[in-house]
Amino acid sequence: MKETVAPPGAELRARAVIDLAAVRANVRTLRDRAPHAALMAVVKADGYGHGAAPCARAAVAAGATWLGTATPQEALALRAPGAGVPADVRIMCWLWTPGGPWREAIEADVDVSVSGMWALEEVTRAARLAGRPARVQLKADTGLGRAGCQPRDWPELVTAAVRAQAEGLLRVTGLWSHFACADEPGHPSIDAQLSQFREMVAYAEARGVEPEVRHIANSPATLTLPESHFDLVRPGIALYGVSPSPAIGTPQELGLRPAMTLSASLSLVKHVPGGHGVSYGHHYVTPGETTLGLVPLGYADGIPRHASSAGPVLVEGKWRTVAGRVAMDQFVVDLGGDEPGPGAEAILFGPGDRGEPTAEDWAQASGTIAYEIVTRIGTRVPRVHVNGEQSG
Ligand SMILES: *Cc1c(COP(=O)(O)O)cnc(C)c1O
């Protein structure tokens, strides 16, 4: 897969710097937390906004042996030669719709998730055409109520999969499921899902399924729930050094390091009198004579409009707050009389080392979760990958 090449000078305005050494360190931390399981690095949604291929390579360099994506297109892109992912790395994707590229996935040696009969029928048909067996992972709905096969429909799906396996059309390589509330330690649904998963696995195994991997653990479960690790853990957000939830801990407490630093260059600094309205709707009015800084990032770049009058920004060592509404391409901060030059760096979030806010701070300011803050950063913001490949 070709990496995004930013238009010349795009990073002068704003940039998301991705520290691949942090991704590698996070993968090592997660492997230490789940020493008996293999690790699938979840790199869907362009690696949660961090760049799928570079993050996939970093995760593999640090010991991930599987990569996971939502869509088959994301999985196939990782199999393209330009992605630089070794051919022996297993890739799995789980978000299929009828008519999907089953044959391409089979031919690219991608494991496909099957939650229901329609998908099993399509994948076996594609396997006949491809002339080789599909690698199929059967997904159980153990309580999430999203994808996955309901317990009452499981016997039919397992029976059909075992029959197709006997005909040489597929191999059931995995049995898997997904948690609803793993980010709320002690939530009663966690134990309920684990016992439902064990039952559904036992049912399939009793009917002759011999999965290579059984797996259910996302980031919070990888970090807090050893009994959920089985053969494979599937962390996503934690790879990027972001905590799944404050209830699980801060990145620092979890031994994780945020990989993304989002910053912009002030495009204007100016003096304004007191009582001056700022940005659309005049929801901020300067309390006295002051200086305003123009940050050239807006909701088109993924800055939540809900962060209006709330999002924190570090400028010359001081936390400032979004003044008034976030617009499509820009927002304003009140610099309280300070006069940084145009081009001065405004750091929206990063690991926090330089005193800057974190993605979690933006999540709190916007009424959302840190997952959304990093993932929604738009394509107009160039990703600058540092500490890649050889640098340890
Ligand atoms: C996104 C996703 C994950 C990773 O979840 P995190 O909470 O980011 O660790 C794991 N499994 C499935 C099925 C997913 O969709």
Automatic annotation (TrEMBL):
Substrate binds at residues 146, 328. Catalyzes the interconversion of L-alanine and D-alanine. May also act on other amino acids. Its EC number is 5.1.1.1. PROSITE patterns: ALANINE_RACEMASE (PS00395). Pathway: Amino-acid biosynthesis; D-alanine biosynthesis; D-alanine from L-alanine: step 1/1. Belongs to the alanine racemase family. The active site is at residues 44, 280. It comes from Streptomyces tendae. InterPro entries: Ala_racemase (IPR000821), Ala_racemase/Decarboxylase_C (IPR009006), Ala_racemase_C (IPR011079), Ala_racemase_N (IPR001608), Ala_racemase_pyridoxalP-BS (IPR020622), PLP-binding_barrel (IPR029066). This is Alanine racemase. Keywords: Isomerase, Pyridoxal phosphate. The modification N6-(pyridoxal phosphate)lysine is found at residue 44. SUPFAM superfamilies: Alanine racemase C-terminal domain-like, PLP-binding barrel. The lineage of its organism: Bacteria, Bacillati, Actinomycetota, Actinomycetes, Kitasatosporales. Residues 259-386 form the Alanine racemase C-terminal domain. Its cofactor is pyridoxal 5'-phosphate. GO terms for molecular function: alanine racemase activity. It catalyses: L-alanine = D-alanine. It is an enzyme of class 5 (isomerase).
